[in-house]
Amino acid sequence: MRNKVLTGFLCIVLALVLSLGCSPMDALCSEHTVDEVSDLIGGIVDYKLSQCGVGSIDDWLMGDIAAGAGRTSDWYALTLSQYGYTDLSAYESSLTDYLGSNNVLSATSREKYALGLAAAGSQSSYISDILDSSIGEQGIMSWIYGLHVLNNGYTCSRFTSDSVVDTILSMQYGDGGWALFGDYGDIDVTAMTVQALAPHYNSRGDVSKAVDRALDFLSYRQQYNGGYSSFGTPNPESASQVLVALSALGIDCRYDDRFIKEGHDLIDGIIEYRLSDGSFSHSMGSGSNETATVQAFYSLVAFKRMTEGKSPLLVLDNRRLPQSQQEHNDSSQQQVQQSTSAAATASSGAKSTTAKTSTVTTTASVTVSAKTLTSAVTVAISGTVTASTAKITTAAALNTETDHKKNVKPMIIIVIIGAAAVISIIIFILGKRNRKNYLFIVLAAGAAIAVVLLLEIQSADDYYSGEKKQKDNIAGTVTMEIRCDTIAGKSDSEHIPADGVILPPTAFDFESGETVFDILTEAAQTYGIQVENRGSAGSSHGMVYIAGINYIYEYDFGDLSGWVYHVNGITPSRGCGEYELSDGDRIEWLYTCEIGHDLNEVYEK
Fold it and tell me: What's the N-to-C CA distance of the chain in angstroms?
């Protein structure tokens, strides 16, 4: 009897285990209710009200949001408009004044401001007037934001929404994604592209195919916690962009198996970074970050709108078209609703880093902030600039604990010989005393030693020697400086100098064929400045992308922030690995928070 009971019990347990094992992962996903999402949105609003010292959203709109028009509050204004707040008159007036008194050089920024005006219900001609001179003028982002404006029914003479869609589709990479440049898709850019293409999903077969490929790309790149990692750094902003994209297509991330990983969905990947005050951090364990907070805000609002059957985040409720464009607007709105429904129905059926630490002092009037691996190294740099000739002279003095470079090859060879000896002893003890075994060990050790002797191996101290590279065939001299003025004083990070100067204007000799990237690498080695790049070196390093300098990375200060370079005051249209230098060139590496808009960039023709 006892055996029968035990057998029955084991059968029940086995059945339960098999049923759980056969259950899809999404069945194990904890569903976030719409009320929970509303609470998250409310938490962000409460955080901002407390930060601004006001008691209501209306006061916020009239106060800090209006005051920050064109600079810091545009995404909050647009999101509140889509959240049901229609009186943005103070923001509209302030943004109009800002545009009237500032020459906005960035095409993408002009398009963003056009969306801000449209969200505020403005009938300003600025919205349509800037399209001809902005769409396509600043890479893929200007195509994306331009399409968003066209999706809202605004028109221009040079472009139609179909022509812009055609161009964007032609820019899709083989892996299904889109990116600013390089050979592989980027999560954020891909998600933002899908957001712009969403209204055309049902009306164009080529769009639906491209978007489906992009969704596969985004699904593949999603991590186990439901979130994403950008350039090796987990963050909530990428997940926020994907959530906006899925919501624009009418896809509910809570129920789509493609975007549930080990029981976690996109919302899990975002709220993991939520802080106790309702704001969000950029990375785990760090403090409140404005970019992470505002992107979480508008992505959650986009999700909530999707659950309520409303239009995508950037198809604006409050837009007021001129009468001549009203008929086009009605057609666009119907197209958006059809595309959203169709997409929802369809959904249901790679870095190198160099780093050092040291103390750096200067005899010039500027401060050099540099990082080196050996704390005993002191670099003194003096610079003199003659304005009339732009001639810069530099002198560097290097003091180190040792006067000679360490050769690590003998140590490596000793380790190889020691390992071979240990293996031989073990074989002897185990009784495997065949002569062939020992011969194999000798040959393997010999091959390893030959590789060591043939390869150029440098220790960290050797790589960061503090000495400029000796060049035999000097073709000329260039100067380079590295600055982050735009974020000086905005963070307590030890890597951001108070005056924004990481490297003052410094002269470098160059050989024929050397590029901006070569000089940046030389500066990193000479002055111990951390540089993190994505892409390959050598003959193919034309595709190198600089993700971080001095531990300051792209996206640290906004979704449009990162490093750009100028040569002789001009922003080149080529990558830093493709720009070959000429005598007298002046190179600047600058950190931007607005894709160059805050630097008053002049673009290469």
Answer: 90
